[in-house]
């Protein structure tokens, strides 16, 4: 797939996920074959005002390329202005969030709220594209605001007209949040309505669901969110299935625990032990999902205080699962 003049190899990208897909997780996923990654969403207002947290969120390392930075907001001028600072971290592209359903974002006119105002959405893409020059701009949308207002095709067309180089479609409305099965028909419809690449997103959890998304929508590429939580190796599984039909099994428990410990050590290295251990708790819960006796382990992992304790629990899990 080509996003503007950026050549992307592979099949699937890691979705932007606030509070989850940070530098550590993105690097890990790239290591397992994610074709590209996108930063956590970053407030255009925050960046424009020089907010330290926003600045920290937009940093990209050499080990997580190609990578885009995602911004959210509702004011074309503020969005465009923020991009001037974002470009300093040399992202391969800028992604505009038009899908976040959270009241804090959509309630302030940003994220999925832009699906209700296609003209404003177009103005934003236009303003951001002007600042970006040759750096591609991509847009991530939902199917619409609610069932009565399914307009992904229109928003995608307007984004394309304003200079977007690719569109990611999460096939759910804002009202649906993350719950009902993804509507692939709307992704297929967007694919028919634009000539830039369309990236299909929603409910891809393995090679088979990845192939189904490609076949049923004719989309150009895939984006994986929750399917990668506690399972960064999903990219390896998808790549193996789509390239030659191989179904790679889930790694054995011992390997999963090893990857979990490595992931959490990376978070601690990048954010410090205090924040790292706190954030480790949710990741650990995902890594232990489906393991025999997981509920009891999760209770222990939920009270994690140190990496030494994490390694102790991981070792115990390996022993108790006899691998
Ligand atoms: C914890 C979490 C955080 C998310 N944060 C973002 C975000 O910052 N920007 C964005 O565009 N979408 C965000 N999303 C939505 C995902 O990128 C993706 O569109 C959605 O989860 C559907 O894909 P999936 O079924 O593969 O998870 C988030 C989703 C989750 C679960």
Task: Give a description of the structure.
This protein has 323 residues and is α/β, with parallel strands linked by helices. It folds into 2 domains: 2-244, Alpha-Beta Barrel (TIM Barrel); 253-320, Putative flavin oxidoreducatase, domain 2 (Non-ribosomal Peptide Synthetase Peptidyl Carrier Protein, Chain A, Orthogonal Bundle), CATH 1.10.1200. Helices cover 46% and strands 15% of the residues. It contains 14 helices and 11 strands. Strand 8, helix 7 (152-161) and strand 9 (166-173) form a beta-alpha-beta unit. It is globular. The termini are far apart. The model has no long low-confidence stretch (mean pLDDT 97).
Give the topology.
Layout: E1 2-3, E2 6-7, E3 12-14, H1 23-31, E4 37-38, E5 42-43, H2 44-48, H3 52-57, E6 67-72, H4 76-86, E7 93-98, H5 103-106, H6 118-132, E8 137-144, H7 152-161, E9 166-173, H8 184-193, E10 198-201, H9 207-217, E11 221-224, H10 234-244, H11 253-271, H12 273-287, H13 294-301, H14 307-320
Parallel strand pairs: 3-11, 4-6, 5-6, 6-7, 7-8, 8-9, 9-10, 10-11
Antiparallel strand pairs: 1-2
Helix pairs in contact: 1-11, 4-6, 6-7, 7-8, 9-10, 11-12, 11-14, 12-13
The structure holds flavin mononucleotide.
